[in-house]
Amino acid sequence: QVQLVESGGGLVQAGGSLRLSCAASRRTFSGMGWYRQAPGKEREFVARIGWGGGDTYLIDSVRGRFTISRDNAKNMVYLQMNSLKPEDTAMYYCNRVAGVHPIDSWGQGTQVTVSS
């Protein structure tokens, strides 16, 4: 198990930007991903990145607006979120991933709220 702490969320107007951070308790030799859960909806996969920073994939609704990256030396994963839309409002979580499937227990997440 890897402990994960998300941060960087906040309240932003539509069209604004946020950079989310995910701190892992140790080095991970696996892909990492971001997920989100809006009120009344199931948690959904958003993006993943391979161990070395390649093999990135983002779902259609965020592709071109979000960028996933990682810094293995710092055990950090990031999600740069640009051109935010109200429908991006959700709790955002990170996790190790196998494909799109989470591996570890969930952290507390970080709230992203995008106003109209």
Could you explain how this protein is built, in words?
This protein is mainly β. It has strands spanning 4-7, 10-13, 18-24, 31-37, 44-49, 57-58, 66-71, 76-81, 90-98, 101-102, 110-115. 32% of the residues are buried. The mean pLDDT is 96.
Question: What tags apply to this protein structure?
Answer:
4-stranded antiparallel beta sheet; mainly beta
Q: Topology of this protein?
A:
Blueprint: E1 4-7, E2 10-13, E3 18-24, E4 31-37, E5 44-49, E6 57-58, E7 66-71, E8 76-81, E9 90-98, E10 101-102, E11 110-115
Parallel strand pairs: 2-11
Antiparallel strand pairs: 1-3, 3-8, 4-5, 4-9, 5-6, 7-8, 9-10, 9-11
Helix/strand class: mainly beta
Which H/E pattern describes the elements? EEEEEEEEEEE
Mean pLDDT score: 96
Largest sheet, in brief, is: 7 strands, mixed
- Unreliable spans are none
Beta content: over 45%
Q: State the helical fraction.
A: under 10%
What is the overall shape?
globular
Question: What is Rg?
Answer: 13 Å
The termini sit apart by: 38 Å
Q: Give the count of helical stretches.
A: 0
Number of E-state strands: 11
Brief rundown of the structure:
By secondary structure, the protein is mostly beta strands. It has no helices and eleven strands.
